[in-house]
Amino acid sequence: MLRVCDLIVIGGGLVGAAISWGAHALGASVILLDEGDDAYRAARGNFGLVWVQSKGDGVAPYALWTRRSAACWPALAAAIQGTVGIEPALHQPGGLAFCLSDEEFYYRDDMLRRMQRESGDIGTRMVHREELRTMVSGLGDEVTGASFCPIDGHANPSYLLRGLHQALGSAYHPRKSVERIDATVQDFTVHAAGVSYVAPKLVIAAGLGSRNLAPTVGLKVPVVPQQGQIVITERLRKLLDFPTHTLRQTDEGTVMLGDSIEDAGFDTTTRVRTLRTIVDRNMRVFPALREASVTRAWAALRVMSPDGLPIYDQSIRYPGAFSATCHSGVTLAGAHALALAPAIMNGALPDALAAFTAKRFLGNLTS
Ligand SMILES: Cc1cc2nc3c(=O)[nH]c(=O)nc-3n(C[C@H](O)[C@H](O)[C@H](O)COP(=O)(O)OP(=O)(O)OC[C@H]3O[C@@H](n4cnc5c(N)ncnc54)[C@H](O)[C@@H]3O)c2cc1C
Question: Which CATH code for domain 2-80+157-222+307-361?
């Protein structure tokens, strides 16, 4: 069987689904091929922050791209809710990163000043202990202050993913693991589960699977897994109004604790030592958490490039083939849907994304 369309996207995680949705919303005929719900998927196990304040320290294009995405998010959330009735629970009240010592406070202060010089002022500032206690109650004595960014936020990543998939309707093809790509300078034929799909444009957004698929079309996506673990409490009374980089309270009242970073290959088992570190730090911030019961914990794999920045490229050998990957697929969903997808459909990546080509790794890639 042969299916023809304008754009094939490989990978239905948050990156591929947002790009597919953006192209679909422009009227393109899109086919999104995805392994489905039982595959490795960072989109399935993440924390849900739409986080700006620390993104792009030393790399202004990343700071600007992240800010643009935060600005695109409300339109994306409204469009998903308007078309399929799924509310991605977006809240952008500003975000806090708590400091537990003077060293942490001055470290973040330096970072914010540096980022302000490099990428402009978005109102991010340090909040001292006394002011912080007027914003958040129940803080532990060790909290010395926090950094605050007025455009940080959070969302429900599962609703976002489901909303994107549902809005794509029959364009979303689960249980279609791509086995082969045949490329010519005119078009791409992608083979998956006995069906061949043909299009003049192709996006490889297969998360950790991109590494092996990309070279077929002259692209490099040298990503590796980076494990993160998350702890969920029972539903609690309102703890705070702001998301933070290690803790956020969902609309349902559960509290998510996270932010671990470990190199564990493709291992997705949790470790008590890591979970304890996550919980200990958050209990120092909110001593009342000592009374809360933990209901769940999981580990999931981030999709990490060698320098932690996104990779966006178009193939020189096979124009029309693009790659897209990042480790902040929730945060960047707005820009992927409303800025990257239109650029791909126009056939060229914008200059603002030039810094994210994988050519930056040439010479220091070992495999
Ligand atoms: C613990 C943790 C916390 C995180 N917290 C945040 C956060 O707070 N904010 C934020 O912005 N981001 C966060 N992230 C990152 C975010 O989840 C990822 O950036 C995002 O999910 C990456 O999406 P992706 O589409 O690139 O990859 P994935 O979600 O991994 O999806 C890739 C998809 O490609 C499919 N695929 C692979 N190979 C093939 C193939 N051959 N054929 C067809 N399909 C294929 C897979 O089945 C999968 O569905 C977190 C991640 C983790 C692990």
Answer: 3.50.50.60
